[in-house]
Amino acid sequence: MSTKFLISKDTVVQTDFTNDVLRNAAEILQRDIRKTVTSHQSANTITLKLNPTVNVKGDAFRVTSPAVDQILVTAKTELGVMYGALAISKQVLGFDDFWFWLDKTPKPVPFIEMNDVDSLKLPDYRVKYRSWFVNDELLINHWEYRESNQYVWMLIFETLLRCGGNIVIPGTDTNSHLHRPLASSMGLMIAHHHAEPLGADMFSRVYPDLEASYLKHPDLFKKIWQDSIDRQKGSKVLWNIGFRGQGDRPFWADDDHNYTEEDKAKVINSVIQTQYEMVKKADPDAMCSMNIYGELTGLYNEGLLKMPKDVIQIWADNGYGKMVSRRQGNDDPRSAVLSSKNDQIAQGIYYHVAFHDLQASNFLTLLQIDPHYVADQLMQVRQAGMDDLVIANTGSIKPHIFYLRLIAQTWRSNYKLESNSDILNEYVGTYYESHLSEISALYTRYFQTTFNYRHFEDQKAGDEFYVYTLRKAIATWLAKRDQMPEMEWLTGTNQFAAQLRQIDDLIKPHVQPFIKLATDTTVLMKRLPADDAGRLYNDLWLSIAIHTYSIKALKLLIDAFKSYDDHDFVGAFLKVDQAKKNMQTMTSQWLNNPLAKWRHFFDNDCYTNITLAAQTLATLENVIRITCDGPDEDQWERKYLMRKSDAKVMLLSNTHKAYSDDEIASRLEGNDGSL
């Protein structure tokens, strides 16, 4: 059927505005119309309507034109209506799924002719439950758009819906509780953090004076779970059952009881059955899931875990893109995940595009694993029949768009595995207008320049590697400890100096390649049109810059330790000063963002915490100065900066206040070579 329906400033989106989901769908579509068309035409309407008898399946929708001035979007579910409204926004108005995050909106036109409305369909999804976990969302917590943090969360949920998502874990800890109503009002089903069974409050938050032991306080745990079930009645929920500790760690870490492997499994199995029965009592048709994550992977593989047959089993990658169990501290068993599973039980995965482990993961930057590897892992998940549910750990969204988009593509039945170049060329061709091959080459080089810290292909260093290692090294140096025990996962039990040599040998070959990549990216950005330059700055350059300035700072710190060990105290001081300046330069890259919208996005970087790294380096710099330049901090000035005749004649002990660390470093670096 072909109709002539002109979308203009006179087009009005109508719906039942008493229904939260339909109201939000209508407001999004009306907003997008206002952004896109500039002229007045004949008044007409787009109506969004629930219709339990419409001939569609599940959350699909139907678009018809009952009259020349009417478009009707109908679906059996609220979510289906939302999908229909977003289909018009995307396929008719031209709004990309990530328009907000990549600053890519359609160019305004006088009006848009809407034809062939029957062609608007919900894509065919292989993955039934398509989800994001907005986890470790620290950047988002302190960032506002249009003076509203809630609007940021609404845009997050909108983006997930545009990608075809239908389930969300709407934040970590208290955030997840806070944002559940908003997520539900957008049509999304609610799921829960793997450390928060049933989405309940943590035991230690409710009972801070009690030991978080299920053996000692089973009734109090059950009360917390029941309270959470009662709070979420009436909402669409995927109930997560299971048992972990007071945080993202095993429960036995918070319990003074000594457990065998069988004991651990016995407690978990008892809790699973109790929680399952509580949920089913409240809603016999409720869906439940369980994360077989971290320490639980080994228990499952040993055949010790038992769970009801209709519980979706959720497996996880290791945080570095590989479908094996994660490393926790020095323990890296790499337990198999993609082994044969029971095909009678629904299986899902939890896949990290952002991760936080205080060791070597990516938190601020684009995942360092190349796209073909990630896509291949997801296709192996498909072949294993483990993709009934796919949850993507999204971090703070903005740095991770490339992989969120790729995962959303793999949700579709027609997705085919492609090469790195094909994946990158399609992405660059979608979002950039000029110099496509050069931009694509920079993305390719990013994945090639990031490096392995061990021999497995997925064991590549993210931004946390440099900065956490740097702070651990400074703490060890200042405390005069024999070693960095926190780095045993990488260096073994070697002494501190040997640990630094190992790390130096690891990073040394990669400093110059990162500097070259950063330089080439900067040169290209200067040649790009403003829109493309701003997009490249935010989508790739900041990731490159974080790696580059951070690896330089870590290398300078290690070199400073060598200089200090050789009693070249001024050399050590200057190297630490340069390391500090690299960290400070990185923070200035955020604040000098060419797109004003994003200038304060990284303000709450309290995980990798580049600002703290700069402060820690400043502390080390000052300690070296105090201990090696004398208590009055004037000996280096006399030795290296003054004329010899002035330095030796001491009629006045001082002629001016001691230089600051920054000032003395600047003057020493500008010295004529007498150093």
Tell me about this structure:
The protein is of the alpha/beta class. The chain has 22 helices and 14 strands. Strands 9-8-7-14-13-12-11-10 form an eight-stranded parallel β-sheet. β8 (167-169), α5 (174-185) and β9 form a beta-alpha-beta unit. The longest helix has 36 residues, at 530-565. The mean pLDDT is 94.
In short:
By secondary structure, the protein is α/β, with parallel strands linked by helices. The chain contains 22 helices and 14 strands.
Unreliable residue stretches: none
Number of helices: 22
Shape: globular
Structural class: alpha/beta
Describe the largest sheet. Answer: 8 strands, parallel
Helix content: 40-55%
| Total beta strand runs | 14
Strand order of the largest sheet: 9-8-7-14-13-12-11-10
Mean pLDDT value: 94
Beta-strand residue percentage: 5-15%
Distance between the termini: 83 Å
Radius of gyration over all CA atoms, rounded: 28 Å
How are the SSEs ordered, and which strands pair?
Layout: E1 5-7, E2 11-14, H1 20-36, E3 44-50, E4 61-67, E5 70-75, H2 78-92, E6 112-114, E7 129-133, H3 138-141, H4 149-162, E8 167-169, H5 174-185, E9 189-190, H6 203-206, H7 218-231, E10 238-240, H8 261-282, E11 287-292, H9 295-301, E12 311-316, E13 347-352, H10 371-383, E14 389-393, H11 401-410, H12 420-431, H13 436-449, H14 463-479, H15 488-491, H16 496-527, H17 530-565, H18 569-591, H19 610-628, H20 635-641, H21 644-648, H22 661-669
Parallel strand pairs: 2-3, 3-5, 7-8, 7-14, 8-9, 10-11, 11-12, 12-13, 13-14
Antiparallel strand pairs: 1-6, 4-5
Helix pairs in contact: 1-2, 7-8, 10-11, 12-13, 13-16, 14-17, 14-19, 16-17, 17-18, 18-19
